[in-house]
Design brief:
By secondary structure, the chain is of the alpha+beta class. The chain is 35% helix and 22% strand. The chain folds into four domains: 79 residues, no CATH class; 142 residues, 2-Layer Sandwich (Nucleotidyltransferase, domain 5), CATH 3.30.420; 150 residues, ATPase, nucleotide binding domain (Nucleotidyltransferase, domain 5, 2-Layer Sandwich); 37 residues, no CATH class. The radius of gyration is 26 Å and the shape is globular. The N terminus is likely disordered.
Amino acid sequence: DKSVKLCSRSKSLSIAFPRPQIWCRSYRRCIISSYESFYQIRACSMGPYSLKDCCSHKMDPSPSCNGFPEPDRVSDSQKRTPSMPWFGMDIGGTLTKLVYFEPHNYTFEADDVEAEVLMNIRKYLTKNSAYGATGHRDIHLQMDNVMVNGRKGTLHFIRFPTSEMHNFIELAKSKGMAKLVTSVCATGGGAFKFEDTFRQEVNVKLEKRDELDSLIQGMLFADTNNSHECYYWSDPKEEDSCHKMTYDFSQPYPFLVVNIGSGVSVLAVYGPNDYKRVSGTSLGGGTFLGLCCLLTGCNSFEEAIELATLGDNKSVDKLIKDIYGGDYERFGLPGDLVASSFGQMALKERRDAVSREDLARATLVTITNNIGSIARMCALNEKINRVVFVGNFLRVNPISMRLLAYAMDFWSNGTLKALFLEHEGYFGAIGSLLASDDRV
């Protein structure tokens, strides 16, 4: 199906092909891929036709091309436009994030087989919110009327456990995706880990993109296209009165990014292409989930968060007041501050009385406090007062967001601002999708 084929898609051509319109499937990204007119290339002046005139790939043209007229010159942006459908992937250690771009106002020839496959893919992805037992589309994050690679359309956000990659590939096969997609821009460690699997199973090349570049570009794109993307938590210590407030992030630089996935990376960002990694830790979302599975017997991130929501870490952690009998006023340490994570578990009677919910809550507080401490130190070292927390650890996890917001405000005496973004863990996938404009 992906062998070199030359065909005409214009119904107005005569049998003699005096001014033919030509499509070479193997080189379609190099010549043009425009689904609004579905691969139509206007004929131009007569002359010897050579694939080398249209393609950047240094490959010998097919002999069957000899004698055909040379097509019009196309712009660099047209040459780079990838064939539909458009995807961006972020294959993380725990979760895979997929962004699908659904273009508006494009038409197909009714009898075209590829068009039928493309429409089936579109219908399947956009008409469902769940794919099998573990794949989910986050409908509330859908972005309408956004411009990607010169096209206006809708962005759909899909996630599934990376452990289910085999099932995803089988689904791609069953929906005919391999017939249309020759490459997908991807980031994350899985772009390397699953490179051979994609090539062997579905003959798709994973175009690897830098993870941190994709993250930053995805963040900036989302904030530009969503006026409510960035927010903070007001009065984070009080659960009843705490609520989200939109934050104007139109003048963002400089800012600190704390990306909380399986592990944690901290970046100082000074401009769109000016950033550096300043710190990180192996104690991230993967640590929280792994420990919760061991301690509580839960089987998913959602279940772990649900348990933590119902628990109380005070029966697990040793607090300042457990040591001093109250506040430690000399250093301004409140009595309910954690002095020793899991410190109460040294006592057998405490272990016997503890609940699964309390263990989950204490695990969440431990991981979150550690991340907050690292973020604060990095912000002080870099002299940056805005800290943006992103990553799928924060998905369905308002407890950690409020803890981070309170910690940033309390320990800095109000000089540090903890900020959050609606699309949390999808920025790497968005950045990968945008990088498809660079493909040749």
